[in-house]
Design goal:
The protein has 184 residues and is an alpha/beta fold. It folds into 2 domains: 134 residues, Aconitase, domain 4 (Alpha-Beta Barrel), CATH 3.20.19; 39 residues, no CATH class. The protein is built from 8 helices and 7 strands. The protein has a 7-stranded mixed β-sheet with strand order 4-3-2-1-5-6-7, with helices on one face. Strand 5 and strand 6 form a beta hairpin.
């Protein structure tokens, strides 16, 4: 059974993975250092399918993508928070990590048993069912593909747009160069 890992408000990316544990400093995957100072037991105890919950402004601070990458590597089912920092939110979707905003998120008990159903946007905690706002279709597509780059590699386009080969010459020149560089 999955469980809840509850955190409070204003959890910044340096608390998720401190800068000295950045992959370019250690040569290791950042999941090993997730919450190494805030909750040292987390990286060794988190299980695939667990749900991280938090209060306001989760992921604030710098735009450290490796903080998000660490949580993806922990194989969380989702993060449910009252709100997310904008850059963290974008990084998470781009890396294929489902995020849900919910007013009750900061009130869920740490360690509680949980069942998460992403398709139904439903979280059951200690027998109580919480309905979450469904993800927009384009986000579901990105997450289902494992992130934005895998999505583009598979479809040759951004979600909701036409494939590069379907663009006329005036549209495709600038777009094609950027997309080709992004997916290399």
């Amino acid at each position: 059974m999955a469980r809840i890992w509850a955190f409070g408000d204003d959890l910044d990316t340096d608390q998720i993975v401190p800068g000295r544990y950045a992959p370019y400093m250690t040569g290791e995957h950042p999941a090993r250092y997730a919450f190494v100072e805030r909750r040292p037991e987390f990286a060794g105890a988190v299980r695939e399918g667990d749900v991280l919950t938090a209060g306001l402004n989760f992921g604030c601070g710098s735009s450290r993508e490796y903080a998000t990458e660490a949580l993806v590597g922990c194989r969380l089912a989702a993060i449910v928070a009252r709100s997310f920092a904008r850059i963290f939110y974008r990084n998470a979707i781009n890396l294929g990590l489902p995020l849900f905003e919910a007013p009750f998120a900061g009130d869920l008990p740490d360690g509680a048993e949980a069942e998460f159903d992403r398709e139904a946007s439903r979280l059951v905690v200690d027998g109580h069912t919480y309905q979450l706002q469904p993800l927009p279709p384009f986000q579901r597509e990105i997450i289902d593909a494992g992130g934005l780059v895998p999505y583009i590699r598979a479809h040759g386009r951004f979600p909701g747009t036409r494939a590069l080969q379907d663009l006329d010459t005036s549209e495709s020149g600038a777009v094609a160069g950027h997309v080709r560089e992004a997916v290399r």
